[in-house]
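#dry-run=false #mode=assembly
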Amino acid sequence: MSTLPVGMGGSGIAPATIGGEIDNTGSHPGRREPLVLGMDTFGEVTRTVCRVTEAKRPPFAWYIAFGLSVSLVGLLGFCVLYLIATGVGVWGLNNPVMWAFDITNFVFWIGIGHAGTLISAILFLFRQKWRTGINRFAEAMTIFAVMCAGIFPAIHVGRVWVVYWLFPIPNQMEMWPQFRSPLLWDVFAVSTYFTVSLLFWFAGMVPDLATLRDRATTKFRQFAYGLFALGWRGSNRHWHRYERAYLLLAALSTPLVLSVHSVVSFDFATSQLPGWHTTIFPPYFVAGAIFSGFAMVVTLAVPAREMFGLKNLITLRHLDNMNKIILVTGCMVGYAYGMEFFIAWYSGALYEKFAFINRAFGQYWWAYWIMVSCNVITPQLFWFKAIRTSIPLMFILSLFVNVGMWFERYVIIVTSLANDFLPSSWDRFIPTWVDIGTMLGAFGLFFTLFLLFCRFLPMIAMAEVKAVMPQADPHFGEDHGDHDHAAKGSHA
Amino acid sequence: MSHGHSAALEAHLDTANIRLGGAGLKARRLALAAGVVGIGASVLLGGAYGGEHGIFLIKSWLQVFLLVLSASLGALFFVIIQHLTHAGWSVTVRRPAELIASNLTWIWVLFLPFVVMAATGKLGVLFPWADLEHLKAHAPGEYDLVVAKSAFLNQPFFWIRAAVYFLVWALLARFYLKGSLEVGETGNVAVEARLSKWAGPSAILFGLTTSFAAFDWIMSLSPGWFSTMFGVYFFAACATTGFSTIIICCLLLQRSGRLQGLVSAEHYQDLGKLLFGFGIVFWAYIAFSQYMLIWYANIPEETGWYLARQIGNWPYVSLALLFGHFVIPFLGLISKWPKRMPQFLMLGALWMIAFAWVDFFWLVMPTIPHELAEAADYMAIVEAYRDAPTGIFNPINLTMTMGLVGIYAWATLNRLERYPLVCRRDPWLQNAVAFENM
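#status=ok
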């Protein structure tokens, strides 16, 4: 496809390209660039997306990635079993530092999930049509990330076989969790989040599962996709119900974007520990979560669109927009770092001041500066469009953000604990191989699930993408490219 | 591009529809009269009673000044965000927002009473850190804390910062209004692109200046107290008054026969959503988070600020805020139809401004009891202040609100009269008029 059809926002002449890809990132006041490139019909969208799951074999790169990821899952299984069999002493935890890699990983993975919910819920309410290209796999990412997150609080309790005590289950011992503890609120917040995200993801996928069912050529595929397509026939009434449900689930998910990470931040901020107790934590954690989540979406989208031939559906404009969100949320995180530092000084509280100076210049200075560099400094490069639209650079910068956001949680948790009120109890946390193995293993689990999802489920919300194509406009084709187009269709 | 407008749209862009003309004349005179009478009456009331009432007068001025300031800041935020996101739907309601925001070019005038106070050495009456001698004599515990932060809380730096805030706000408001006026005249898309290009840096400047203004003008009223969230709280308050004012302004313009066929229920629904999302829910989220974290940790350095709002008759105001600023409007505006019904949305917007007023009253008026640092326990303070009045029935509240809001309304109406009410050659205009919620 060398030119854009006129009706798709193109002028009929060969479009500009960036790095060999069609440049649809331009901003032309009064006109939106197309979100789907090089496709004139809905059928092409269906074929492009379904090809990924219908191909006899996935691309060779998929096997390599899957092999690596599954090996890491093995490592995770081994580390967790070793931990359960031996005790939490196999981690590097010590007396002041009673939380370290475990809760760092937990908060990191919960944060990663937030991009999916933001894209599917908040961007839906804000009518951001570009979300349709990325929402499906971002939501899948949310679910897998929450699964990874869930492992850590479960195994860090030590006696993992009584982990169900986290839930307020009536029992003859009259034993209840502490309802006044934010740790319990976390149990509720995260399980609600997981449930709603799963429902939203699944409900949104039903029409696409029906498409896969209808195209299936083997009995097994017909049965499996047919089972989960819930008898979807695409009737007018089905669509009507579907759209209502979608809107309601979006409205339910929207407060969850804020509440989940706010509750996670309460785990720290309700305490009296300097560096943990600060009022900006809830919005700061939420911004950080969205920041890290979008970075992970970019990290996944860049190779996935390459591997599965989805460049015309996940276009440069999608990536450019995501990089802008990374820039915005990165600035918010920077604002929070600055405010914490300023108020630590302004408060006049001795311990608060110490906690922050210690973070920047104490024994963990390197972690602090990795965090600031990756979260505040390098994302500023996204001010430049050339960097926002450069595939290799955005990939590298998104990896930086992933690293930076992991270190943010590490810095918050470990520095505040390691140097608390009493210098005689100060210590230093040194991770053991089990700490590191479990952390890497969680990445393995995440990528394994993601790769399986790519292979077996519709990676892009076909039905939703079609709805934002110009062809979906009932007046499409009546007056090609005329500027009066919008005015004639009063509903446009 | 100019030939791109359909005939129907051209008809809506007729001068009679997009210029206020003489329609606002009566309202303008009324607003100016209310302003002059209100300020005069406030000064008389404050001066006549002296002492306590003098302090109340100046606090009341600060409170209502913050109210009108927040409306313009909220409108400025709206304008910047529209350009930042290349929004198409909002073009027909953006000009009123730009004009409300452009009050920021003169709003510093309302800050002059504080300059006068400083010049006569009385600023310490309002901001305890400005009179360290007095603080040392009356609250030695707090004095030690405040001296430690005098590198920030000192008069020269305070005034430099205030000047920077007013300058930044004036420049931003002017930049966006002038650019929009130029696009309206010429349809020059290069100008539109420039406005978008600078929206990012503008948003950052906006965020930093409003945060520190909140620290300076509200948080430092209790100089011992601190909260990292406070700038965000003030931002949420700006969203409440800003979106409410835009809604009221558009509704009144339509009631006077302007903007017909340009602003529809669709736009009101979206403005209502923004008011609901930012001014009601986000505000409650921030207010709750700040309160909950301080209440839960229960550290004396922080709890005093909330204690001052829980003693005497203050619980009534605090609870009024909880229900009036969140629970009731949350239920009232959550559905689709109230946001699309002009009468109901007008009521909602006026209601929110009323409770934004209460919010600023609650932020500005209470003082943390000095004896708190030495008190054996909280209950002793609670007991001692059992009948402490809030001053909510002080007539100055009424006259001052009438005065400053009157002046503000007068200035806004002047602006609405001077400029076209819509950016008539905006490339997104067509899109905005045709816009529908799904």
